[in-house]
């Protein structure tokens, strides 16, 4: 089991959704350091300029202003330093095209944001279990 | 006296003398002997056989003198020939007739003359046999008799000579006859040899006389004719004449000619006296004639022609073989034929025939008539008869001659053509009325356009006829025009749609069929184009196309819109939901009422989401193409039931006969899910019963979902299918009100129908059909 | 969600059997296929035994077959139709020769496992839950 807590970057523009994640994490006792960027541009800035420590996990929304998740992902994958970060898409978009694009850019998972918080909690719990399984 | 005395028949006498051909002939021993005998018997030095010509006396034989002739007026014999008896002059000097005669006064100094006339059987005195002395004397009776006898002898000699000469003459004539004859004259023998052949043999056969005479004639006969020739020779040997026997002889050149023999045999000697004629040419001519006749017969047969001859006086009718054949009669004697002929003629036409005959006799003009003949089996033939009248010396028509031709086929064909022509005319009228028709020649110039063509192209007929049809079609894209041309030039029919240019610059669409008309060589000589005006259709099509395109676009836009709307509408919902949850969480001490409010809040949010989803779903129905697949309905129902129906408190029955069908899975899933989940949702009994049944209809599948729930009152049976319509207040039973409207839309979109069988408190049956 | 097929690449029959058993006990609803080696696996992805639909998940131990596994993964990542497959590296080997290489290939997870039946079940269970919460594209 992985003792070291890896950094997690959340790229999400909706304030409430950010709260969702934070609350779910805390409810699930996920203690990993969580950083938040409001959109792709911000996220890139934070990463490239070393404003934040390098995360091993990125939770990525797709529908964001300025630069959406897929565009961000593309740039990331072309960046030597950033390309191997595990990305978990979390989005309301059920569009097949988004799924295809995401998997083509080798996300580790594509999760739909459920409406109910309860369901979200369960999903996060599953994620936690999964992360604990992996070596990153 | 120098009187020339002539006997009465002098002219005839001279002729007879001439006929004897004795004058100026050479001396002959026989006559000389008689002269000598006369001289001896009468004892005179001079004796003469003397012939009296017109003006002279000529001595055939002479004894004692040298001259051959003297003039007649000096002769003594001229007197001798006047009488029949011996004429004696005992002393010439004492005779008044002769005293002055130079022959008396001079040499040979005649004193005595006695001459017996040379009298032919016919009584003509040719001349005399006379004795002459230079001294006067007298003959005694015996001498006179002897002289007479000797004179007769001379005549006999003359006769015999003449006969001989005649014989020689006739022999020569015969010889000439034979020699010069064009016919082959020969003497052969039953032993088979030629004895004598005339020159004609050489001329005709080419062999020389020497090659033929003495050689077997058999050698020259054509092998095929040998047998017959032998037979003929045998007949000849028995004494039978050969008349016109023909066989072929080989010429020296190797060719064969046909000889026609007339031969008389002489049985004793076996000689055959033959005359042959070269009938090769005649034979050829004969053959030609026969061939010609045969040809004529055959021609008549082929052309179905017969010839006839009718004698108006005797009513004798003569027909050629062809004529009999056409009339299908056996040969009849000419007196009976006329009656037979008339009996065959169609009664209606008999009158016409008689009228024509009358006219011919009156006018003497040639005639032509058509009539029908009827056979016993009711078959009819059409006959064309042509005839010419022939007149006698008085100018009356006594005979008619002519030909007939069996024109049945032609007549029937003509009738058919007339019929077909009419048909064609009728079709053409119909065509003209209904379609746009144009005909163009090989070069593409218009030779005919109908009214419809003019009205649609807005050109007048004059503006079109003779013009190139490219006036209308010249704007076609090259490839298109080429393709049409290639098809029709090769003799094939082209069908298709074309857009033509009207006079005013507008376009009109035609659905055209272009048919090439082919000549005997299968090359097109003209093209007919038949088309219908489909401009309106085309416009409608175009409109439809653009409308569809528009629709497609609008659909896409709507889809996008719906998605975006639902997505963007949902986001805040989620936030509201979560926040309200957290608020409740973060305030454990929240009063009941407040907490209850928050529940309400969250309930409404949920509702909102469902509504949005419902609307999205509803809007999607019918706009997306879903692939059909094989669906095991029983399996699907079970899956749906497994996922929707709680394990406890429900009894589900499914009919046994649910088939496997080909349809859109997702649609059926939606329908069944909706109906079943409704049944579950509204179930008000301890044990909810849901019964699913299937019935196969001729063109539809029929399904029914029956529950034992509260049922639906009849007045609401239609209302429940309306969008956002709920049967209960949403606070009583959470429902979007969209479910059934979605179900109805799905079903009706596919061409099916749904209805409810239910009454309040009597459970509810939803029955719907899906087309097969 | 939906039904994805999972391709397990391992040359140990026993391991494959264990997985199958585990899958059925956990009631994993995704179909499990197995290949004994990378070649066979490749033929099941793009060759004569091509599976239809193509598996969305590959489970492979890259430490067992020297660099064959990495080559295999490379090939997948370079293949237009196969590059989006989720790859989970599961290994019971202490030797982590190929870990770095694998991580460089954007795998979904590098999971050290034990294949004893009890522990295997717990692994599979977590994986299964994970697979149930993520979306798959409807690509074939």
Automatic annotation (TrEMBL), chain A:
Q: Which domain of life is it from?
A: Bacteria
InterPro entries this protein is in? Answer: CheY-like_superfamily, Sig_transdc_resp-reg_receiver, TCS_response_regulator
Q: Which residues form the Response regulatory domain?
A: 7-128
A Pfam family it matches: Response_reg
Per the record's keyword annotation, is Phosphoprotein included, yes or no? yes
PTM sites of type 4-aspartylphosphate: 61
Which Gene Ontology terms describe the biological processes this protein takes part in? phosphorelay signal transduction system
Ranges in a coiled coil: none
Keyword set, alphabetical order: Phosphoprotein
Entry keyword annotation includes Phosphoprotein: yes
PANTHER family from the entry? RESPONSE REGULATOR RCP1, RESPONSE REGULATOR RCP1-RELATED
Q: Kindly provide the name given to this protein in its UniProt entry.
A: Two-component system response regulator
Tell me what organism the protein belongs to: Flavobacterium fryxellicola
TrEMBL record, chain B:
Question: Gene3D superfamilies, from UniProt?
Answer: 1.10.287.130, 2.10.70.100, 3.30.450.40, Histidine kinase-like ATPase, C-terminal domain (3.30.565.10), PAS domain (3.30.450.20)
List, alphabetically, the InterPro entries matched.
Answer: GAF, GAF-like_dom_sf, HATPase_C_sf, HATPase_dom, His_kinase_dom, HisK_dim/P_dom, HisK_dim/P_sf, PAC
Report the catalytic activity.
Answer: ATP + protein L-histidine = ADP + protein N-phospho-L-histidine
Q: Where is the PAC domain?
A: 367-419, 494-546
| Record-annotated Histidine kinase domain positions | 564-772
**Transmembrane regions:** none
The record's listing under PROSITE patterns reads: HIS_KIN, PAC, PAS
Respond yes or no to whether keyword Phosphoprotein is given for this record.
yes
Key word Kinase present: yes
Q: Which residues form the PAS domain?
A: 170-240, 423-467
EC main group: transferase
Recorded GO molecular functions are: phosphorelay sensor kinase activity
Q: Which SMART domains match?
A: HATPase_c, HisKA, PAC, PAS
Q: What is its EC number?
A: 2.7.13.3
Q: Superkingdom of this entry's organism?
A: Bacteria
- What keyword terms does UniProt attach to this protein? Kinase, Phosphoprotein, Transferase
Pfam families named among the record's database cross-references: GAF, HATPase_c, HisKA, PAS_3, PAS_9
The protein in question is named: histidine kinase
Q: Which organism is it from?
A: Flavobacterium fryxellicola
UniProtKB/TrEMBL annotation, chain C:
Instruction: Record the organism.
Output: Flavobacterium fryxellicola
The residue ranges crossing the membrane are none
Q: Which residue positions does 4-aspartylphosphate occur at?
A: 61
Please report the name of this protein according to its UniProt entry. Two-component response regulator
User: Sorted alphabetically, which InterPro entries does this protein's record hold?
Assistant: Bact_response_regulator, CheY-like_superfamily, Sig_transdc_resp-reg_receiver
| Record GO biological process | phosphorelay signal transduction system
Q: Does the keyword Signal apply?
A: no
Q: Which UniProt keywords apply?
A: Phosphoprotein
The answer to whether the entry has keyword Protein biosynthesis is no
Q: Which SUPFAM superfamilies match?
A: CheY-like
User: Which positions fall inside the Response regulatory domain?
Assistant: 5-128
The record, for Pfam families, names: Response_reg
């Amino acid at each position: 089991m992985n003792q070291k807590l890896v950094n997690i970057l959340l790229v999400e523009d909706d304030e409430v959704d950010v709260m969702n994640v934070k609350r779910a994490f805390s409810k699930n006792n996920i203690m990993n350091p969580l950083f938040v960027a409001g959109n792709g541009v911000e996220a890139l800035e934070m990463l490239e300029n070393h404003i934040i420590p390098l995360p091993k996990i990125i939770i990525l929304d797709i529908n964001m202003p300025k630069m959406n998740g897929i565009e961000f992902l593309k740039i990331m994958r072309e960046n030597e330093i950033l390309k191997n970060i595990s990305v978990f898409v979390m989005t309301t978009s059920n569009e097949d095209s988004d799924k295809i694009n995401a998997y083509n850019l080798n996300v580790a998972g594509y999760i739909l944001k459920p409406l109910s918080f309860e369901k979200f909690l369960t999903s996060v719990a599953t994620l936690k279990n999964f992360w604990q399984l992996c070596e990153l | 006296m120098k009187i020339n005395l002539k006997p009465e028949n002098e002219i005839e006498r001279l002729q007879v003398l001439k006929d004897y051909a004795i004058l100026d002939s050479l001396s002959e021993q026989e006559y000389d002997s008689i002269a000598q005998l006369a001289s001896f018997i009468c004892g005179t030095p001079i004796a003469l056989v003397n012939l009296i010509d017109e003006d002279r006396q000529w001595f055939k034989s002479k004894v004692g003198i040298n001259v051959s002739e003297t003039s007649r007026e000096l002769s003594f014999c001229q007197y001798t020939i006047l009488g029949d008896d011996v004429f004696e002059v005992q002393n010439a000097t004492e005779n008044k007739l002769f005293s002055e005669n130079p022959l008396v006064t001079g040499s040979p100094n005649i004193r005595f003359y006695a001459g017996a006339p040379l009298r032919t059987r016919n009584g003509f005195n040719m001349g005399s046999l006379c004795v002459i002395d230079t001294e006067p004397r007298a003959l005694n009776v015996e001498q006179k008799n002897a002289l007479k006898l000797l004179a007769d002898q001379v005549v006999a000699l003359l006769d015999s000579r003449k006969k001989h000469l005649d014989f020689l003459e006739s022999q020569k004539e015969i010889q000439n006859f034979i020699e010069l004859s064009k016919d082959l004259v020969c003497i052969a023998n039953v032993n088979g040899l030629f004895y004598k052949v005339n020159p004609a043999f050489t001329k005709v056969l080419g062999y020389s006389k020497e090659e033929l005479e003495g050689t077997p004639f058999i050698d020259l006969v054509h092998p095929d004719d040998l047998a017959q020739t032998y037979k003929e020779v045998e007949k000849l040997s028995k004494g039978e004449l050969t008349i016109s026997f023909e066989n072929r002889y080989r010429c020296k050149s190797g060719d064969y000619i046909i000889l026609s023999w007339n031969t008389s045999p002489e049985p004793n000697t076996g000689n055959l006296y033959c005359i042959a004629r070269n009938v090769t040419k005649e034979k050829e001519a004969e053959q030609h004639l026969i061939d010609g006749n045969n040809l004529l017969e055959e021609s008549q047969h082929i052309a179905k022609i017969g010839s006839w001859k009718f004698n108006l006086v005797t009513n004798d009718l003569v027909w050629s073989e062809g004529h009999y054949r056409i009339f299908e009669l056996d040969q009849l004697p000419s007196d009976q034929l006329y009656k037979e002929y008339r009996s065959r003629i169609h009664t209606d036409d008999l009158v016409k025939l008689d009228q024509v005959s009358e006219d011919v006799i009156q006018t003497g003009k040639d005639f032509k008539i058509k009539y029908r003949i009827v056979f016993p089996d009711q078959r009819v033939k059409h006959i064309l008869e042509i005839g010419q009248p022939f007149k006698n010396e008085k100018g009356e028509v006594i005979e008619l001659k002519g030909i007939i031709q069996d024109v049945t086929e032609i007549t029937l064909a003509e009738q058919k053509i007339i019929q077909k022509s009419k048909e064609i005319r009728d079709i053409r009228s119909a065509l003209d009325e209904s379609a746009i028709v144009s005909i163009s020649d090989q070069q593409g110039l218009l030779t005919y356009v109908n009214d419809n063509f003019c009205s649609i192209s807005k050109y007048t007929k004059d503006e079109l006829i003779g013009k190139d049809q490219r006036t209308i079609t010249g704007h076609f894209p090259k490839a298109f025009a080429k393709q049409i041309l290639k098809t029709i030039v090769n003799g094939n029919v082209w069908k298709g749609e074309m857009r033509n240019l009207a006079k005013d610059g507008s376009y009109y669409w035609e659905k055209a069929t272009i048919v090439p008309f082919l000549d005997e060589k299968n090359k097109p000589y003209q093209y007919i184009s038949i088309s219908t005006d489909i401009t309106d259709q085309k416009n409608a099509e175009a409109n439809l196309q653009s409308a569809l395109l528009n629709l497609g676009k609008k659909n896409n836009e709507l889809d996008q819109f719906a998605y975006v709307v639902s997505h963007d509408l949902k986001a805040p919902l989620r936030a509201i939901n979560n926040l309200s949850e957290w608020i409740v969480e973060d305030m454990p001490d929240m009063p009941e009422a407040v907490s209850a409010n928050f529940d309400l809040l969250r309930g409404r949010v949920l509702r909102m989401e469902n509504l949005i989803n419902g609307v999205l779903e509803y809007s999607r129905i019918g706009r997306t193409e879903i692939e059909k697949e094989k669906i095991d309905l029983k399996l699907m129902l079970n899956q749906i039931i497994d996922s929707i129906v709680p394990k406890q408190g429900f009894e589900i029955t499914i009919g046994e006969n649910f088939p496997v069908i080909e349809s859109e899975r997702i649609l059926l899933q939606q329908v069944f899910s909706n109906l079943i989940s409704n049944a579950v949702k509204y179930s008000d009994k301890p044990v909810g019963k849901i019964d699913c049944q299937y019935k196969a209809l001729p063109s539809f599948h029929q399904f029914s979902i029956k529950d034992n729930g509260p049922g639906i009152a009849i007045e609401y049976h239609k209302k429940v299918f309306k969008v956002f319509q709920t049967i209960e207040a949403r606070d009583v039973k959470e429902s979007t009100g969209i479910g059934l409207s979605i179900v109805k839309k799905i079903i009706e979109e596919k061409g099916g129908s749904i209805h409810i069988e239910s009454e309040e408190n009597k459970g509810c049956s939803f029955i719907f059909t899906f087309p097969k | 969600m939906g039904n994805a097929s999972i391709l397990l690449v391992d040359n140990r029959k026993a391991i494959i059997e264990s997985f199958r058993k585990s899958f059925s006990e956990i009631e994993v609803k995704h179909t499990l296929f197995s290949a004994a080696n990378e070649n066979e696996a490749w033929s099941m992805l793009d060759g004569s035994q091509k599976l239809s639909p193509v598996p969305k998940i590959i489970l492979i131990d890259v430490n067992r077959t020297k660099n064959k596994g990495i080559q295999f993964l490379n090939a997948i990542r370079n293949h237009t139709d196969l590059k989006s497959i989720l790859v989970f590296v599961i290994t019971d080997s202490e030797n982590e020769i190929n870990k770095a290489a694998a991580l460089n290939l954007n795998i979904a997870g590098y999971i050290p496992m034990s294949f004893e039946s009890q522990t295997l079940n717990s692994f599979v269970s977590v994986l299964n839950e994970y697979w149930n919460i993520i979306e798959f594209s409807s690509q074939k």
